[in-house]
Amino acid sequence: MSQKASTRDTRPVAQVIAAEGVARAIGLKHVASLLYTYRCDLACKHCLFQCGPQQPDRRVSHEDGLEFLRQLHQTGRVIHIAGGEALLYFDSVLALCRAADQEGIAPHFIESNARWCVSDELGIERFQALRGAGVQGMLFSADPYHQVFFPPENRARAFRLAVDIFGRPNVIASDASIEKLREMNDIGRDRERLAHFTRQHPPRLVGRAGEQLAHFFPDRPLSDLAQDPLWHGSNHTADCASEFDPERMWEIHIDPYGNIQTCCGIVLGNARETPLPALMATEFWGRSEIVRRVSERGPYGLLDLATERGYRARAGYPQKCHLCWEVRKFLRPSYPAVFGPAEVYGSRMPL
Fold first, then answer.
1. Which of 164-168, 235-239, 282-286 has the highest mean pLDDT?
2. pLDDT at position 237, please?
3. pTM for this entry
4. Do 223 and 326 fall into the same domain?
5. Which residues constitute the domain of residue 316?
6. Counting CB atoms within 10 angstroms of each CB, which of 29, 82, 251, 282 has the fewest?
7. Phi and psi based region of residue 19 (left: phi greater than 0; alpha: psi -120 to 50; beta: remaining)
8. 258 occurs within a structural domain
9. H-run or E-run covering 23
10. 210 and 231 both lie in a single domain
């Protein structure tokens, strides 16, 4: 394990959730997710995983889901089911949660875009069923990228009903008004306003964000990128060590193929071959030349490798993560087992 001090609360996760609620527990314990599917009914411009309707109809099997939840719970983090949009497969997700609850390994919350919440009756039915299956909370996004796709009433309804059923401390979402949600929709439809919003709230420019939002930012010299923050403002150094440190990393994912990822699109191992707790105990980066390079030197380590293979670097990139994304795309044909899966890279190379 890492020799650096943990930044996470030392109390058991159940105790933290009971005392603080799911929303605050995320910041205190960090998160681990079952990435149930890459398929989604939206195709948000900022999506790191390039989720959308075009992705294959692939999801975590019931048996794998239970095993992956067992492994995720051993991390001592707040556990959630995410996507894509996992609730496209509501009946299967509910069955998984019920079975997991019998073992004491139900996810703490479910992440959803709320597009499906078209009536009070449906929302109440689903939230009560999830709560009865051991789920303790919900997460809903609200921003111009999501809200451009569906009526604001759906998201407002989902928030209201979830607060009623799970309690406000267990709903990870802003209480954005209908008017605010409509404004987000307007921003998402207006290129200039969206560009301004994106510059004010920069996403990590990987995945679809790297393809569709990077042009909103000016290129900067390579030497200026080193201090860019990483996920949730961590690091501020040329390396990416905080993304691969088992204690400091913000999030860890297991996807439908068993791929273990912490930085979207960099595969650390497979949960079917080496369980997540065992992989964490050996230090992620020690298992792969590629992961060691990006952990110790950030995208600059990958850039050197790509240059050796014929990559010609641009004079500048808008963001440190975008440099990483562009270099990864170049290297993927040579390292498909590390830079994957295909869904993230918008290709149909072998998984």
1. 164-168
2. 83
3. 0.94
4. yes
5. 204-247+280-346
6. 282
7. alpha
8. no
9. helix 22-29
10. yes
